[in-house]
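ping. complex inputs:
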Amino acid sequence: RKEVEQDPGPFNVPEGATVAFNCTYSNSASQSFFWYRQDCRKEPKLLMSVYSSGNEDGRFTAQLNRASQYISLLIRDSKLSDSATYLCVVNTNTGGFKTIFGAGTRLFVKA
Amino acid sequence: DAGVTQSPTHLIKTRGQQVTLRCSPKSGHDTVSWYQQALGQGPQFIFQYYEEEERQRGNFPDRFSGHQFPNYSSELNVNALLLGDSALYLCASSLDLTSGNTIYFGEGSWLTVV
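pong. complex structure:
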């Protein structure tokens, strides 16, 4: 089992749609969680951190469920510019500190 | 304030050759991690340097080695290149990852092995 698993993509949605990405992690001792966005042939960039209490940044909402070892990202009112790959990221400190990336979920928003 | 910078941005090497990639972390950051990202995959952790020592290593062979300098900059060396080493190599920096700080990436070095 992979340490971080994400929904297989791609997701094809129309502008204005709401889309949700899911991610699960295997290490219950994981400490911090993030969503990164990666545009084609570019480096990943931090989209938002994920907290147990949930956090919102404009059209983006991230949730963490530690009991289920599950992270989600919700994008409301999708824009064409949201088209990218979304990477789920988990920091663990078991046998040393590591940052583990999921394989990413590709999103295409179409007009 | 410069972010993470990497060089070279693109390079082509022949099988069996050696390559050195360089990274300067974001100002104030002391931890550097290297990742390999193949097309269609997420970044795979290679290793992490802190205080000039390799603190953590992923599942990569010994052909992959690195170094961190006193100014926190870092190098990634890959020996005996294979075709499968073709990928985007990303350097990421942070302020001591053990505190869970966010990592920031450079634009990466695109390596093609022919």
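Chain A has a mean pLDDT of 92.
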